[in-house]
Amino acid sequence: MTGATVQALEATENRLAYFLERFPEYRKTLRLAVTHEESGREARSYQGWQWHDVETHPTKLIRLVTEGISRISLRTRQATSYLLRDKDAVKRVLARS
User: Fold this and answer.
1) Is the predicted pLDDT of residue 54 greater than 90, yes or no?
2) Pairwise CA distance, residues 70 & 86, whole Å
3) pLDDT value for 6
4) Domain range enclosing 29
5) Which of 24, 27, 38, 80 has the highest CB neighbour count under 10 A?
6) Which residue from 49, 36, 27 is spatially nearest to 96, judged by alpha carbons?
C-alpha cells in the first residue's frame, strides 16, 4: 500500500472512531450490519441490510449515510437497503473499542 492509501485508511478509521465516541449507541447497529453483510455476501443478489436487520429505527440510519459510514444500495416504496462503505474499517474500529 502506498502512503496515501494508508493515510486515507487511517483518516476513515479516525472519523469512524470519533463518530462512535459521540454516538456510542451506533456500536450495536454497526456490529449487526457487519454480521449481516458477511452472512449475506454469499448470495448473488445481496442488496444489503434494512433497519430491522440492525435493530435500529429507520430515521437513525440516515445519520450513517450523511456521515459517510453507509450508503443506500436500494430504495423501493416498501423498503430501503443499506451497505457499509468500508466494512473492514468498521470491523477494525469496533475491535479496538
Assistant:
1) yes
2) 8
3) 67
4) 3-96
5) 80
6) 27
pTM above 0.85, yes or no: yes
Query: How far is residue 25's CA from residue 46's CA, in Å, rounded to a whole number?
Result: 26
Task: Measure the CA–CA gap between 78 and 31, rounded to whole angstroms.
Answer: 25
pLDDT of residue 1: 61
Residue carrying the nine cell digits 455476501: 41
Domains held by the chain: number: 1
Burial class (CB in 10 A: 0-12, 13-18, 19+), 92: middle
DSSP state letter for 1: -
Instruction: Tell me the average pLDDT across 32-52.
Output: 88
pLDDT 10s digits, 1-12: 676 676 777 888
